[in-house]
Amino acid sequence: MTDNKRKQYLIIGVGRFGSALAKTLYEMGHEVLAVDASAERVAAITPYVTNAIQVAPADEESMRSLGIRNFDAAVVAIGDDLQHSILMTVLCKEMGARYLVAKASDAMHAKVLLKLGVDRVVFPERDMGERIARSMVNPHVLDLINLPSGYQISYISCPDTWKERSLQQIDVRKRYGVSILAIYRDSEIQMDLRAETRLAAGNNLLVLGRREAVEKVEGLD
């Protein structure tokens, strides 16, 4: 799921999270089918996706008619109705979803979803809250993404102590336990990094590492 080919996505539930996801995927050039029990929500999302239909939570026949196994990925974007979320997740699994993502409202909800066999559980509100909190506390943190197994990717401004120094001189892997994946200079992105690559004022960095290591880097002056 990492290439840029045109893909087909099924988004079940188009509240704030689901509609934003559906619109973004469609804007990226992919085909998106949005499904929701609310006629009002379906009408609101229709101009922004390939197709949108109204399906009641218990309408298994209509769900089967969608051809879920034909989509590259299905997303159950329902977090406020546990029963509806679980029902749709079970149906997607039974109908052969290739890759299934589900939104969870809390840890117990996530645990149930994982037991049902979803490929990925997301916490949009929690993750966004954490991202905003970290950026408010530390101005170096511009954005972050939590990964499995305690790893994290953080988008930070270059620490002052790293400016005008090469990656070899800084030795980030040995000294800090992180890797610099890319350097952002104005509108340019440099990913072909070498030992002699130098950092400068105004650079932003994409840093990968375990959470505790990344947080130490975020705290550098």
Description:
With 221 residues, the chain is α/β, with parallel strands linked by helices. The chain folds into two domains: 8-122, NAD(P)-binding Rossmann-like Domain (Rossmann fold, 3-Layer(aba) Sandwich); 127-218, 2-Layer Sandwich (Alpha-Beta Plaits). Helices cover 35% and strands 26% of the residues. The chain has nine helices and eleven strands. The chain has helices spanning 16-27, 39-45, 60-64, 82-94, 107-115, 124-137, 167-170, 172-176, 211-218; strands spanning 8-12, 31-36, 51-54, 73-76, 100-103, 120-122, 141-146, 151-157, 178-185, 188-190, 204-210. The strands form two sheets. The protein has a six-stranded parallel sheet, with helices on both faces. It is elongated. The relative contact order is 0.10.
